Amino acid sequence: MIQALPPEPAPYIAPDVAPDVAPAPAASAATDGSLRIAAALTDARVQVDSSFRGASIVLYGAVFNPTDQPTDVVVVVRGPEQPLRLVKKTRNLGVWLNSRPVLFEGAPGFYMTASTRPLSEVADFGQLRRLGVGVNHLRIAAPEEARSVTRYGVRDVVVSRLGEDYLDWRRAVIRLKEAGALYNTDPDGVRFVDKGLFRAEVELPATAPTGQYSAEVWLFQDGAPKSVSNLTMTVEKVGFERDVYEFAHSRPWSYGVLCVLLAAAMGYGASRLFRRV
Fold first, then answer.
1. Which of 18, 107, 118, 247 is buried deepest, with most CB atoms within 10 A?
2. pLDDT higher for 7 or 64?
3. Closest Cα to residue 209, out of 60, 76, 92, 46?
4. CB atoms within 10 A of CB 191
5. pTM of the entire structure?
């Protein structure tokens, strides 16, 4: 049986006017010839309640490097600033006494650095100090109390009343924060999981302060900063703890009176209970 074949379709003739579609670029315009870094957080909000035992947040990103020279990534996470009052034990006439309290302001309540290798190998001392990267380069304001002295023939030079002991007090601030797991330095905390892709973990202890956190992700090459990505993170109280916190700060007098009344009621109730027993 012979079957008739369908007629051949007419050849397609392209129109004279090209369609309004741009050709696909050979490379992304955002990364073509640009050395930069991009980063993000798995969770930009941490909720704190009575069962909060700390949190682990993953920071991840990518390095766009069109060159063959290696790069380093440094992550710096800072918490809200908190004043810290310190005293020093001094021996007077054989008796140990507390010195006059020293109030440090401007110190972050949480500070963490993570890098692909030790910071001293990533950049020199001057670069790290200028950027404030690393616990040894933190800008912690000295107490406002000051005195005037004469130094190198110059009169009325204003210095902190701590004088040469300022560095010892500053190291004490960092030591106390590190003991509470609020300051941390991890020279191997940034790991490349693939070519150009990296990750780092931010460990928040249960005592982490609430408020706004900032994260800086620096890209270094040949010891110099080439790019930075800035992120924000919020640690906030939720539930009943948040209500109590807001009430205590918005109405401190009422909160204080209520605490006294509750303590008196609990004491009275306990006395009645044990009297019957």
1. 107
2. 64
3. 46
4. 13
5. 0.69
